[in-house]
Amino acid sequence: MRIFLGFFGLTRSLRYTIYSIRAQILMPLVESGVAATRYGHFHLPVTIRNSRSGEFDLPTDPNEVNLLELQHCRVDAQDPGLIAETLEIARSYPDCYNDDYASVRNICFQLRSLNCLWDMMQMEVTEHDWVVFLRPDLLYLDRIDVLQIVASMAKEGTDLAVPTWQDWGGLNDRFAVATARGARVYATRLGWLEAAAADGVHAETLLYFAAAVEQLRVARLPARAVRIRANGHAAENDLQCFGLLPVREAANA
Fold first, then answer.
1. CB 3.0-4.6 Å disulfide test: which of 6, 83, 175, 222 passes with 108?
2. What CA–CA distance (Å, rounded) separates 150 from 160?
3. Is 52 helix (H, G, I), strand (E, B) or coil?
4. How far is CA 169 from the centre of its chain?
């Protein structure tokens, strides 16, 4: 049995989150004597611009990814042409975020990143191995003992373990622990986008759909994580979800 760590998405706030990644994920592995292989695929825009998250033309640092000390890494420019076909399909369905498909566009990039990550990993990952998928822009609040989670999943015959919170009617896809089979489904669920998008493209319901169709056995992880923006600010609705921000303050934030 081997453990693989797969980082994906954006490294927009890694300078703020790297300490939690080291303390809550990497250190427990070191303490268990596990030398996990680290892969990463990322999109790198020139600047981060997202009015929904309060990020306005914030420059990115191409060297920030080095903080993860990856053995295998690929960084692509965030070229709209890379997701043009996927976004065109997504636009034929309702915009469930009501932001002119800006959030759907970000989901398309994230799904592409996962696909590219799996393309990199699949030749090395065997059916006996385990994969941990991680977003680098999350501040991990709790210790994630991967070896303990894997032992529990193996005992229960579980394919995929995802967080318990913010599932929005589907499955939270912020991070995950998976068997090789579960990892393939998690990373390549873009292939189910059209079949799952009757009510619009939504990351959590897409994962739920793919897991259901592929008949994965899913477990839940209580470990918490908060999205950190490129400006270092935490996502208010994440803080509110964990009781770290009063409802009235979140409403005025």
1. 83
2. 10
3. coil
4. 17
pTM for this predicted structure: 0.94
H or E element that contains 130: strand 130-134
Is 3-252 assigned to CATH 3.90.550?
yes
Task: State phi, psi for 203 to the nearest 5 degrees.
Answer: -60, -45
Give me the pLDDT at residue 57, please: 77
Q: Which residue in 142, 135, 139 sits closest to 232, CA to CA?
A: 139
CA-nearest of 162, 119, 132, 116 to 38 is 132
With contact defined as beta carbons under 8 Å apart, do 14 and 63 qualify? no
Beta bridge partners of 161: 177, 219
CA gap 130, 133 in Å, rounded? 10
Cα separations in angstroms, 5 against 61, 158, 159, 238: 22, 18, 16, 24
pLDDT, tens digit (0-9, with 9 covering 90-100), for 114-125: 999 999 999 999
Q: Residue 119: what residue type?
A: D
Residue ranges covered by each domain of the chain:
3-252
Q: Residue for token digits 């979800």?
A: 241
Structure tokens of 249? Answer: 């303050």
Taking the C-alpha atoms of residue 29 and residue 209, their distance in angstroms, rounded to an integer, is 31
Using one digit for the tens of pLDDT, what is the confidence trace for 153-187?
999 999 999 999 999 999 999 999 999 999 999 99
Q: Per DSSP, what are the bridge partners of residue 129? A: none
Cα end-to-end distance, the chain, whole Å: 46
- Measured distance CA(184)–CA(20) in Å, rounded: 26
pLDDT band at residue 59 under the 50/70/90 scheme: confident
Strand partners, 4: 37, 131
